[in-house]
Design brief:
The chain has an 8-stranded mixed beta sheet, sandwiched between helices. By secondary structure, the chain is of the alpha/beta class. The protein has helices at about 30-35, 80-85, 90-100, 130, 150-160, 180-190, 205-215, 235-245, 270-280, 310-325, 395-405, 425, 485-490, 495, 505-510, and strands at about 70-75, 115, 120-125, 125, 175, 190-195, 250, 270, 285-290, 330-335, 375, 385.
Length: about 525
């Protein structure tokens, strides 16, 4: 774990250089110039001259990699400290990790922070089950969905998570403990947790999910719905995989995120029931994306105001199906979140190389978002480890491009190569660095962990939409259920426009009721 690597006894010979802007340390122009930014692009140094740890699978030819099947799950709107920060004070986990990997095996998590509200009053972070004991700590029904827009994020970065214009009330400074998230905590403790995984952008859902599928948002800063265009038109990882003969499928609970790219990706889409069938048969494709439910009545995405216990049950079942599959022995399961959701995190978001990087903060697509929870689970991930490498969602693309599309294990390749989509995935760190050549066969965790049933849904009358630039709503002001961006897209007729009808599954009823 020395030099920013994964929890391995073998130190990484050299370190990824990743430009990071402090919260209040340097002005942006000085930062960009000091980082060597050229051509309007903020710089993230690549691993062009480095080599991975001795036991890393990246030392193998991609065609000899033990990973044949990859399952990617992206949940919604939680920050690292808010969701997994308790790992920073988990003494039992820490002692085991240090005994295996050395003194650097510590998770950079902190749930003890204080933020100033708009009146200058200090507000300490709090355990949500205590703070909302008289309300609903599992959903946050009586609180606004924390601010996570382009401007919200910049205010939170520069002025704090309760500053005027942050879109937040004290709900955003609450956190969960390990027992509150029984599946996530077991997965993180057993496999490799990534404590430097940042949202791709300091912005909302659509742009971040677009980066996962295409390494860009097309310059979109908001949840812009391309209803007139019939979907976004730029290239995605799906065409690259398909064109190389790599099998790939997308499974969804109610609405597919791939619909943002219009009808052209519909052939990849399958209802979630098919995922469980394919796991049982051992017939998953080489690359599988799985998304949770986004609609009220089937929401398993962990986005406020969904009950996180429904999301935990969804994740448990999706992971267990893969872990019990014949394909697990050569499988990789990646769990991450689209963005931080406005919840507090004590680590400053980093910069990346991006085609739309800018000296203007208001237009800078090189600015990553705050950290999100992320776990890499595989027989080839290390037991109870932490990876300090800087990742974002395009690190998933970078791994797929190495494993299946001819990209080098490390570095940016040569001009003229055609394995990358944009500068972002070309310069991203390959998360394969977190995987080793020697497998651990024992799954090492309870795949059937008990999870309490969810609470009753929040009131369905959302009331007036919140003004993104308004001061935080006082905790005492009731806030009704606020629709997810995909629910709004359904209401506006977008999914019908691109040939998608919402599906239902009996499994969703088990997860949400």
């Amino acid at each position: 774990m020395t030099n920013g690597g994964v929890g391995s006894a073998a130190p990484r010979p050299c370190r990824q250089r990743d430009a990071q802007r402090g919260f209040h340390t340097v002005d942006r122009r000085t930062f960009l110039i000091g980082s060597g930014a050229l051509g309007g692009l903020a710089l993230t140094g690549g691993l062009t001259a480095c080599r991975p740890p001795a036991d890393s699978i990246l030392n193998l030819p991609a065609t000899s990699s033990p990973i044949d099947n990859v399952v990617i799950v992206m949940m919604e709107n939680r920050s690292f400290d808010h969701w997994l920060g308790w790992l920073g004070t988990d003494d039992a986990w820490h002692d085991n990790a240090v005994s295996r990997y050395g003194p650097d095996a510590t998770v950079n998590g902190s749930q003890t922070q204080t933020y100033l509200d708009p009146s200058g009053n200090p507000v300490p972070t709090a355990h949500l089950l205590d703070y909302l004991a008289s309300g609903n700590p599992w959903r946050g029904c009586d609180h606004p969905d924390p601010g996570h827009g382009w401007n919200h994020g910049r205010i939170q970065r520069d002025l704090g998570f309760l500053a005027s214009g942050s879109g937040n009330d004290p709900f955003a400074t609450g956190y969960y403990l390990a027992d509150d998230v029984p599946f996530s905590s077991r997965l993180a403790r057993r496999f490799t947790v990534c404590d430097q995984w940042f949202a791709a952008l300091l912005g909302p859902t659509y742009p971040n999910r677009l980066y996962l599928h295409s390494a860009q948002s097309g310059g979109q800063k908001t949840n812009y719905l391309p209803i007139n265009e019939g979907g976004y038109g730029w290239p995605t990882i799906w065409e690259r995989l398909s064109g190389a003969g790599v099998t790939a499928e997308y499974y969804y609970v109610d609405l597919p995120v791939t619909a943002l790219f219009g009808q052209r990706l519909n052939p990849f889409n399958h209802p979630i029931d098919d995922y469980f069938t394919r796991c049982g048969e051992g017939t998953l494709p080489q690359v599988t994306f799985v998304d949770p439910g986004f609609l009220n009545g089937s929401r398993t995405d962990n986005h406020p105001h969904a009950d996180i216990r429904a999301g935990e049950a969804f994740l448990r079942d999706v992971f267990a199906a893969f872990a019990n599959s014949p394909q697990w022995s050569n499988g990789l399961f990646i769990l991450t979140y689209d963005e931080w959701g406005g919840f507090f995190d004590h680590v400053a978001p980093t910069m990346a190389m991006d085609d739309r990087g800018s000296y203007s903060d208001a237009d800078n697509f090189a600015q990553r978002g705050f950290r999100v929870p992320a776990v890499i689970a595989s027989p080839y991930s290390q037991v109870g480890a932490v990876d300090h490498t800087v990742y974002d969602h395009t690190s998933i693309l970078r791994f797929l491009e190495w494993r299946f599309l001819g990209a080098p294990a490390l570095g940016v390749g040569a001009d003229g190569d055609n394995w990358w989509l944009t500068s972002r995935d070309r310069w991203a760190n390959n998360l394969g660095a977190a995987l080793v050549q020697t497998p651990t066969v024992d799954i090492g965790m309870d795949l059937g962990v008990a999870i309490d049933p969810p609470s009753v849904e929040c009131a369905t009358d959302p009331g007036a939409d919140l003004d993104p630039g308004a001061p935080p709503v006082p905790a005492s002001a009731p806030v009704g259920y606020q629709k997810h961006a995909f629910e709004q897209a359904l209401d506006e007729g977008y999914f019908e426009r691109v040939g998608i009808t919402p599906v239902t599954t009996t499994m969703a009823a088990d997860w949400v009721h």
